Each structure stands twice: as structure tokens, then as C-alpha cells.
Amino acid sequence: MVSGGLLLAGFHVTRAVAGSMKAAQAEAPAKEQAPAPKAADAPAADAAAQPQTAPGSETAADPHADGERIAPEDMVVRRVLPIDEPIKFGHWYWDERGAPATGTMIITIDLKAQVLSVWRNGYEIGTTAVLYGADEKPTPVGTFPILEKDIDHVSGTYNSAPMPYSLRLTQDWVAIHGSDIIAGYATHGCIGVPEDFAAKLFGAVEVGDFVVITDGKTLSTD
After folding, report:
1. Which one, 62, 87, 124, 156, has least CB within 10 Å?
2. Is 177 a catalytic residue?
3. What tens digit of pLDDT does each residue of 171-207 get?
4. Is 7 left (phi over 0), alpha (psi -120 to 50) or beta?
């Protein structure tokens, strides 16, 4: 877990971000402001081209290999997607217009709001509502590097349940993966996202990229 904090709130992400992700000193130029994206429930709804990935557990190339990763506590938030309504379960948004083509990727997950956001160099490029672990098997909070990518993983514990586009975060296979997203459902500790969104995310991030999971509070080791 890193020192500092990351505060997420509401049905999306708050523009008042403190601690581990510092707000930009000035607003981004108008040309960098993306139009309000439409909710997506299929890949065809996304207008931005995505990095191509090879089948299996590793991608063919690093889409942000132009420099070292920025630690979550040093990330500057430059733009959030202009979404003006609650994100419905099963819906997702992905819009890379105005964002850098490469750069540090960070995923943030607010369990209280049940929202996941994807950031590239401080620009939010994707977001969705999520499912998370029930009381018997809660989703851990903290900062985790992606340990492994597996495009067609199946659970070794829960009746070989499919876990497509898995991004493994812990040794006991807590992962972000594609799932049926239904309000009121829960997971066995994993983060469930719509499968089409999971495919986008799988192609955009690499092993070693950070995932910051909070319960609506600021992370801190103090």
C-alpha cells in the first residue's frame, strides 16, 4: 500500500481529488475536453481504437512503454469523463478522445460507490459500475500491481467459473474480470465488470500497472 490518499465519491468520480492523485493546477484546454460519452453495452458503441492484444496471458506490446510508470500518489488528475448521470449496472463508458495515446495507466475502484475508473496519465478514459466481494469473502482494499493477465481464466475454486479477461491482483486470485453485472449480486472477492468493458481494459493495461481499491475513504498508511 502506498502512502498518501485517493478519494473517490458519488456515482462517478469527484473532481475534488486529494492525496495520492493531486488535482491539476489549471483546467485542460478546451480541445482536450471530450464530449459526453454514451453508455455502452457492446464494443461497437466505442468510437476510439484500442491497442491490439495477443491471445493468452500476455500482450504483444506495452502500450505505454515510452517511459517509467508514475506512482499513484504522484498522478495528476487532468480530466474526468463528463458523465452527468448515475452509471447503471451493466453499462460502461470508454472515450480516449483528447487523452494521450500512451502513458501511465492506473485503475481506481471505489467499493462504496461501486465504480471503477481507468486513467491514462491523469485522463480518465473509461468507467463502469462493478460488483465486488460479499461479507464472507470481501474485496481487499489497498494498492495492488497487476500480477498476471489471463484472457480465458477459469476459477480453480468455484466450479471452474469463467473469469474472462482476468487481471490478477493477489496471490489467491482476487482479480478484475468480465462478469454478468446485476444489481444486488456479489462476487467471491473479485471485481466484476461487463465483459465487453473487461476486454477493453485487458488491452489497455499491462502487468505491473497499479490498481487502487478504496471503500470510499482516503487510503493512508499513517
Report:
1. 156
2. yes
3. 988 999 998 887 777 777 899 999 999 999 999 999 9
4. beta
